[in-house]
Design goal:
With about 230 residues, the protein is of the alpha+beta class. It has three helices and seven strands. The longest helix is centred in the first third of the chain and has 42 residues, at about 5-45.
């Protein structure tokens, strides 16, 4: 080995070690994320309780709840989509239960069902409390006159429908016939790309090793020719 090969060799070893470490770090992040999602799934599927008298967006996030009351005819539709179905809307309606008035995410309707009348109905709803974080700097302002929102902004929906800023996302309903297809809370929509990141870092480590070996072989050949 010549002196000219020492620096590339050290650089190759250091780069490979760094890339492998990044891959292992992503594997640790993967285990951490999977544990969080497992806990979330267990909470979502837990035994439902009555709607708490005092609701906290942090402590009561994803809390399973069952309530009987009246789904009012006033509603707001929120742009959404459903896999294998395509674009459509979520239906958000006021839900009067136990002397309170909260928001109810009834579920999904197709584009063609937008103008269909959904009358007031009494039902028992089982679902989860949810405060979705869907609004960002690119979210258009709601079409208040047309009753259409582009994200589930709990505060603005509650103000428009005169309810508490509490959203119950339906999982099951006693309605018969079913006017809206429930679209329950699930962890499936939460990104978990750590395995993909880990594979990327490991592949980069392989490429780095290959490039280092190629450089060392080239330097050695030049040294022998010289």
């Amino acid at each position: 080995m010549t002196r000219r090969m020492i620096l590339p060799l050290l650089f190759g070893i250091a780069g490979t070690a760094l890339l492998i470490w990044l891959g292992l770090w992503q594997m640790q992040r993967l285990a951490w994320k999977e544990a969080i999602l497992a806990d979330l799934d267990a909470r979502i599927a837990g035994a439902p309780v009555s709607l708490p008298a005092q609701v906290d967006p942090v402590d009561d996030a994803f809390l399973p709840v069952t309530a009987t009351g009246t789904i009012l005819a006033d509603e707001i539709i929120v742009q959404s989509s459903l896999k294998l179905v395509g674009p459509g809307f979520r239906v958000i309606a006021p839900f009067e239960t136990g002397g309170r008035r909260i928001l109810l995410d009834r579920g999904f309707i197709r584009l063609t069902d937008r103008d269909r009348v959904r009358p007031e109905v009494t039902a028992t709803i089982t679902g989860n409390l949810h405060w979705p974080d869907e609004v960002d700097g690119f979210t258009p302002d709601p079409d208040v006159a047309g009753g259409m929102w582009f994200a589930r902004d709990i505060d603005s929906l509650a103000a428009a429908l005169n309810t508490e800023p509490v959203l119950l996302v339906a999982r099951t309903t006693s309605e018969n016939p079913l006017a809206v297809t429930p679209l329950p809370v699930a962890s499936a929509g939460i990104p978990n790309d750590h395995l993909q990141y880990a594979v990327t870092w490991f592949l980069m480590a392989v490429v780095w090793v290959g490039m280092t070996l190629y450089l060392l072989v080239t330097l050695r050949r030049r040294a022998s020719e010289g």
